[in-house]
Amino acid sequence: MQFRHTNRINRINRMHVPTWITVLACVLLAWHGPIAQPAHYHDFADQQMCYSIAHFADVVSNVGFALVALWGWWQLRPAVGRQSLRYGWAGYRLFLMGLFLTALGSAYYHLAPDNQRLVWDRLPIALLCAGLLAGVWGDVWKKSSRLMALGLGVAAVCSVGWWHVTEQAGAGDLRPYLLLQGLPLVLIPVWQWAHGAPRADRLAFAGAVLLYVLAKFAELADHQIAAITGGLTGHTAKHLLATVAAALIVARLVRRSACVTNAGCKALPCVS
Fold it and tell me: Which neighbouring-strand residues pair with 53?
C-alpha cells in the first residue's frame, strides 16, 4: 500500500516537471534580455543559380516538407475518428498545415533572402511547433488538443509578429520565437516520460528531436559544411535533416492510427 502511494506521489511530481521547465525558460529569457538576429543571417553558402532558380539547393530542398505533410494528411485524415488520434488530432492537424506552409514559406524566402520574406519562413515554423506541442499534450493528458492548438497557434503568430515589429524598430528580439521553437525539444520527451507514453512513441519523437538538433547545428555551420563537402551546404542539410525528423513523427502517427481496437490490428506491435 505504501509502495503504491509513493509511486503515485512520484508520478504527480513528474507531471509538474514540464511546468517548472517552462517557467525556468521564461525567467532565463526575461533575465537575458533581447536576442537579436545575427547581422549576416541572410548570407547563406548556397549561391548557385540553376534552372533560373537562385539559391537552388536551399529552395528545392523544401519540397520534402510538403511531401511529408501531404503524405501525413492523406494517411491520417481518414483516421481522425480512431482512438489513437482522438485527443491529439487538432494539434497534429496544425502541425501538418504548418509543415506544408513551411515548404512554401521557406522556398519563397530563400529565393531572395531578406527580413520581409523571412516572416513567411518563420511563421509556419512557429505554427508547426505549436501544433506539435498541442498534439502531444492532447495525447499524454487524454484531453482534446483543440483549445491548446488555438492558444499556441495565436502565440506562434505573436512570437513572429513580435520579432518583426521589434526588428523594424531597430531592436529585433527573437526570444518568444526561440522559446516556441525550443520548448517542443524539451517538453515532448519530458511529457512522454512523465505520463508513461508507449515506448514506440518515445523512440520516434526522441529520434526526431535528435535529428532536429543536428539540423540546427548544420544550420550554424552552413559555410563550413559547404567548404568540406564542396557542394552540400549546411543550410540545405538542415532542410533535409528536418524533413527526416518530421517524417519520423508522421510515420509514427500513421503507424499508430492503424492500431485501432479491432481484430484487424491485433497483430500490430503498436505499444510496448
Answer: 50
Each as own residue / partner, the long-range contacts of residues 210-219 (CB below 8 Å, 24 or more positions apart, any chain) are: 211/241, 211/242, 211/244, 211/245, 211/248, 212/185, 212/241, 212/242, 212/245, 213/185, 214/241, 215/239, 215/241, 215/242, 215/245
The 3-state DSSP composition of the chain as helix, strand, coil percent (nearest 5) reads 75, 0, 25
Contact between 225 and 234 (Cβ < 8 Å)? yes
Q: For 86-121, how does the pLDDT look when each residue is reduced to its tens digit (9 = 90+)?
A: 899 999 999 999 999 999 999 999 999 999 999 999
State the pTM of this model: 0.89
Alpha helices, DSSP H, located in 142-270: 146-168, 175-194, 199-220, 222-229, 234-257
Rounded to whole angstroms, the Cα distance separating 156 from 69 reads: 19
Cα separation, 132 vs 244, in Å, equals: 15
Answer yes or no: are the C-beta atoms of 216 and 238 closer than 8 Å: yes
One-letter amino acid of 187: L
Q: Domain ranges in the chain?
A: 56-116+123-260
- Counting beta carbons within 10 angstroms of the beta carbon of residue 207, is it exposed (0 to 12), middle (13 to 18) or buried (19 or more)? middle
Contact 11, 194 (CB under 8 A): yes
